[in-house]
Amino acid sequence: MGKQYNKIEKRRRRAAYLERKHAKAKELALKPKARRISKKAEAAVG
Fold first, then answer.
1. 46 residues of the chain, pLDDT tens digit each
2. What are the CA-CA distances from residue 24 to residues 28, 33, 40 (Å)?
3. Distance (Å, rounded) from C-alpha 31 to C-alpha 1?
4. Cα separation of 4 and 34, whole Å?
5. Per-domain boundaries in the chain
6. 5-44 burial string, b = 16+ CB within 10 Å, else e?
7. How far apart are CA 42 and CA 29, in angstroms?
8. Mind giving me the DSSP string for 1-46?
């Protein structure tokens, strides 16, 4: 299990990471307004 194997492992790990990252980005892109606070809500809190 030398360098060649490590290279494959790194590639798999990175691919999995990027897949998770893209899934999260898509999820946030679908509902961006849910995170925003309206000015009326801010005035009521502050």
1. 688 999 999 999 999 999 999 999 988 888 766 556 666 666 666 5
2. 6, 16, 29
3. 45
4. 46
5. 3-45
6. eeeeeeeeeeeeeeeeeeeeeeeeeeeeeeeeeeeeeeee
7. 23
8. --HHHHHHHHHHHHHHHHHHHHHHHHHHHH-SGGG---HHHHHHH-
Q: Which amino acid is at 44?
A: A
Residue found under tokens 């980005």: 25
Q: Tally the residues of the chain.
A: 46
**Residue 23: what residue type?**
A
